[in-house]
Hints:
Layout: H1 2-28, H2 33-61, H3 65-78, H4 88-102, H5 105-120, H6 124-149, H7 153-170, H8 175-181, H9 187-195, H10 197-201, H11 212-224, H12 227-239, H13 244-263, H14 265-269, H15 274-292, H16 298-306, H17 308-325, H18 332-362, H19 366-382
Helix pairs in contact: 1-5, 1-6, 1-7, 1-12, 2-4, 2-18, 3-4, 3-7, 5-8, 5-18, 6-13, 11-17, 11-18, 11-19, 12-18, 13-16, 13-17, 15-17, 15-19, 18-19
Amino acid sequence: MARFAALLATSFLGVGVAMPFLPPFLAGKGMGPEAVAQILFAGSLIRFLVSPALGRVADRLGDGRMVLVPCAAVAALAAPLFLPAQGFWAVLAVQLLFAAAMAPLSPLGEAMTLAATRRAGADYGRVRSAGSVAFILGAAGAGAMASWAGYAAVPWLLAACYVTAIAAAWSLPRPGLAAASRATSGPVARGRAAGGGLRSLFALHLLRRPGFARLVAITGLIQGSHAAYYGFSSIHWARAGHSPEAIGLLWAEGVLAEVLLFFWARPLLGRLSPRELMFLAAGAGLVRWTALAFTTELWALVPLQALHAITFGAQYMGAMRWLSANAPPGEGLAAQSLHAAIGNTGALALSMLLAGWFYARVEGGAFLAMAVLCALAVPVAWWWRAGR
């Protein structure tokens, strides 16, 4: 399990740098809120398109390293290109290249780890917590570096993160993917491959599986509600007078709460069904986003950040639990990638445009729109009978 934990750690290290500090880096290059949202939207959109396709390729190759290693290498080379890029279109081009390269790293790593822990009878949440710990180190370290060297350090930090991901991906055992997917030997996989076409490549037929499409919808609403937080909280808090170090620590705190939840997932959440976990996450989101719309005071931000364990972590664990129990034969990685692409990346892309539009006009009021998304998730989860 150590090598899978290392892969997740190196993948999420870069995410821990990019999520809090790429938006203020872009703002520092003269981008307004809507331009920042459009660039972040473009990155999410390209991940939405690339991730399921590469998940399908990984299923067919039978060795996830053949996808993860070159993608991590391209991400490491692309990140420094943010520095010389000037103007919206140049920055957008770099973002598309960088986002496409990093797209499969987390979904494939998580799917491979989920399968490996299931075979070994290990606790997935504890192995997954390595990624969250790395996110904390990335956010806190990038905050300290930005305070010292400015936001121009962010692209170099991203490059260093993905260099480590190359080594971690290459060290994985080959059976880690083959046993997870069994995609190249079974009759189901051969039938899918023979079908060909974009529908087969993106595994869209999986949306017809009972419960899967509704899971994607619930994930999209709850995880999409994080758009204002991911895209504009750092900018919003900096405008309120908080330092990069404080902002980095706030992000780190949110993920630390997530780590603790993952580490103690079995005793804390073991009796809750996936659907009940969705209700819990949606309710916490209503509280969190509504409060963030009205305050930037540090004494309030600290407890609100702890709710990340529920708004992100509980929903994530519920989705992983359902996917683990209902993985389609020979297409486990494709299902994971499609869920991540539509439910996480695609929904977040659309929500980011919404958040950018609102933030440009009402600033903190953008978080209220995110609370509405959580409210919409409640009736969708209520009718998710497969989530029992």
